[in-house]
């Protein structure tokens, strides 16, 4: 499976890794615990990594608990994906200014971004990043943010009960799209690099040859992580859009709050709305974009009416896009099996159940 | 700066009130370096921006010339929402922003040496008017021109004098239908599809441009197919919520297509199995 050379690094090497990144001018982002959840935030010392933290996740349920383990990465993903670092939740696209004669002057807001290294990315989120890169390939704002990222993945060893990345082919190990990847073991890490910047950082780390024992331990752990997972049910992506009359949509709409949590935590959802934010001086104005959701009231607005006025239509749009029309758009499903939409749904709707039911039904008429 | 993601300044030369809520803006792009934007094709659209309020997608109607021979860009707008109402308030001499052109226009090259059949429904169908104007400006490139326009009420008809002018041109058929016709309406009362049945079409050499509400476009396309017009010779102009105009913001998705980028003009076979599906 892995083509890169594997090295062994003792657990204390994490300090060297962090220092090396800082000395190379990277702002380092890593996992930590905040408000009872794993979040990605600025990481200045290894002590603030979530050591021994594990979690339980169920539909509508997410809880952390402390264990005696010395591991830093024994959790599955929290609510936050890599997405906010590349596709900003809110950003200014351009500014306009009114000249004395009333004419308008438009200025760019593209700014140089600082070098950023992210530690602790999972396979599902690397796969979602690749999906977003397909979608935002021509978007200058996205590209600007993406260009300065160094990605340090950690193979997922403790998937949650909501995870199904093995069945989407995106995890639990990281096998593409990273600069450096780690497999966390009981006493240290297996380390591999996948890019020139990644190899340069590796050269400064206290690495040893990986022993047979370490490699076997990693294989066992990986196999175990795969077995812990749920499976994507059988359904036909091309049929989803033609199953609009199914009673499944009514049933899910009865429960769905149309809150958009699923789209916020989804690492691949890309919708944004654009809005104007005029300054109080009346002479300047910012044109901004902000994450939007197909569950929002205005998403389907055209000249005076909404063609998806109810939750039924909105849930259907979300699910048929993610698992159906995404395949036509980008050659694969828009789901990477992270399970966030299941855990963070306030009423615990499980899209895999919906897909299973649809898979057993026919199309309209 | 030539970044197409940034709007450019446009001066309102003239404002024409077409009906109670429809108006046309005649615009000049004040920065000559931005005149590449005037390469806009019938069926494409621009994002028009009112300072401090926001942007809306508006299809291109025509490029005309002022007395000095300078190009004038025309957009016809119906004031229904926040931004269109704010644009409606502007007077000649005011400035707006403009981004574009965006999207796929009518298949002009493919239509050459063919008969053109333009079927429209509803008020102010600017995308269709743009291709009719283009065809008359390049008359020798096209065969017979069929123009069918349907309106709900006879009083809704826009640009009546243009239709009357076209009706007098050689090799041209103009037919109008009003669901509800006031006394004195010289044309048909009823549906557009009834008029299509009467058209002396040569289906093997006709290209259809259709623009209007989706049920009307679908019914028209199916009627044309019954009259032996090949489905891939029928092109529709679609409409969805367009905010970024570059296929990124996700609002205009119609199944797998991003209408702002893959449309708004699209061949009927690509749309056929999705048109009429509720909520798509």
TrEMBL record, chain A:
4Fe-4S ferredoxin-type domain boundaries: 247-277, 326-357
Cited PANTHER family: ANAEROBIC SULFITE REDUCTASE SUBUNIT A
The protein's name in its UniProt record: 4Fe-4S dicluster domain-containing protein
Domain of life per record: Bacteria
InterPro entries per record: 4Fe4S_Fe-S-bd (IPR017896), 4Fe4S_Fe_S_CS (IPR017900), Helical_ferredxn (IPR009051)
Iron-sulfur listed as a keyword: yes
The species this protein was found in: Marinobacterium alkalitolerans
Keyword entries, A-Z: Iron, Iron-sulfur, Metal-binding
Metal-binding as UniProt keyword: yes
Pfam family, one: Fer4_22
UniProtKB/TrEMBL annotation, chain B:
Pfam families noted in UniProt: DHODB_Fe-S_bind (PF10418), NAD_binding_1 (PF00175)
FAD-binding FR-type domain location: 5-108
PROSITE patterns noted in UniProt: FAD_FR
Annotated protein name in UniProt: FAD/NAD(P)-binding protein
């Amino acid at each position: 499976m892995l083509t890169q050379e594997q090295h062994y690094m003792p657990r204390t090497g994490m300090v060297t890794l962090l220092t090396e990144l800082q000395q190379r001018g990277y702002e380092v982002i890593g996992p930590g615990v905040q408000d009872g959840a794993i979040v990605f935030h600025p990481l200045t010392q290894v002590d603030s990594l979530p050591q021994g933290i594990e979690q339980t996740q169920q539909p509508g349920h997410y809880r952390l608990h402390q264990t005696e383990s010395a591991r830093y990465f024994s959790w599955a993903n929290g609510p936050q994906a890599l997405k906010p670092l590349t596709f900003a939740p809110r950003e200014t696209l351009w500014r306009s200014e009114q000249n004395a004669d009333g004419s308008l002057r438009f200025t760019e807001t593209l700014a140089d971004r600082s070098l950023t290294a992210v530690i602790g990315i999972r396979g599902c989120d690397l796969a979602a990043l690749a999906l977003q890169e397909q979608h935002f390939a021509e978007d200058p704002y996205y590209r600007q943010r993406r260009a300065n990222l160094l990605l340090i993945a950690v193979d997922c060893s403790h998937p949650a009960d909501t995870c199904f990345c093995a069945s989407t082919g995106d995890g639990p190990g990281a096998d593409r799209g990273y600069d450096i990847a780690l497999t966390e073991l009981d006493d240290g890490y297996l380390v591999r690099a996948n890019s020139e910047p990644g190899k340069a950082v590796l050269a400064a780390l206290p690495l040893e040859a990986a022993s047979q024992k370490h490699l076997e331990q990693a294989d066992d752990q990986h196999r175990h992580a795969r077995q812990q997972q749920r499976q994507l049910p059988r359904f036909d992506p091309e049929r989803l859009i033609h199953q609009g009359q199914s009673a499944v949509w009514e049933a899910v709409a009865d429960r769905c709050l149309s809150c958009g949590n699923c789209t916020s935590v989804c690492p691949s959802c890309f919708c944004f709305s654009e809005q104007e934010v005029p300054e109080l001086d009346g002479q300047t104005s910012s044109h901004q974009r902000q994450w939007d959701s197909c569950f929002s009231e205005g998403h389907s607005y055209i000249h005076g009416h909404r063609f998806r006025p109810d939750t039924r239509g909105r849930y259907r749009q979300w699910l048929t896009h993610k698992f159906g029309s995404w395949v036509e758009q980008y050659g694969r499903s828009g789901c990477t099996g992270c399970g966030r939409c299941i855990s963070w749904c306030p009423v615990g709707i499980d899209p895999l159940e919906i897909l299973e039911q649809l898979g057993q039904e026919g199309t309209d008429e | 700066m030539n970044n197409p993601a940034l709007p450019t300044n446009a001066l309102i030369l003239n404002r024409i009130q077409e009906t109670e809520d429809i108006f046309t803006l005649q615009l000049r792009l004040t920065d000559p370096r931005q005149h590449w934007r005037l390469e806009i094709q019938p069926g494409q659209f621009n994002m028009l921006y009112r300072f401090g309020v926001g942007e809306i997608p508006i299809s291109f109607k025509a490029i005309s010339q002022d007395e000095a021979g300078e190009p004038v860009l025309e957009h016809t707008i119906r004031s229904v929402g926040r931004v269109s109402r704010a644009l409606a308030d502007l007077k000649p001499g005011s400035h707006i922003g403009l981004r574009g052109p965006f999207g796929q226009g009518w298949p002009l090259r493919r239509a050459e040496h063919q008969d053109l059949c333009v079927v429209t429904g509803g008020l102010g169908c600017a995308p269709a008017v743009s291709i009719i104007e283009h065809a008359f400006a390049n008359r020798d490139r096209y065969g017979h021109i069929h123009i069918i326009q349907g309106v709900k009420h006879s009083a809704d008809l826009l640009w009546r004098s243009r239709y009357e002018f076209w009706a007098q041109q050689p090799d041209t058929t103009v037919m109008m239908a009003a669901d509800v016709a006031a006394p004195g309406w010289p044309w048909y009362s009823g549906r557009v599809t009834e008029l299509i049945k009467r058209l002396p079409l040569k289906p093997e050499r006709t290209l259809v441009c259709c623009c209007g509400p989706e049920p009307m476009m679908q019914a028209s396309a199916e009627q044309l197919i019954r009259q032996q017009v090949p489905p891939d010779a029928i092109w529709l102009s679609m409409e969805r919520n367009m905010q970024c105009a570059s296929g990124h913001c996700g609002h205009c998705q119609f199944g797998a297509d991003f209408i702002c980028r893959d449309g708004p003009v699209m061949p009927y076979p690509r749309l056929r199995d999705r048109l009429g599906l509720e909520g798509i």
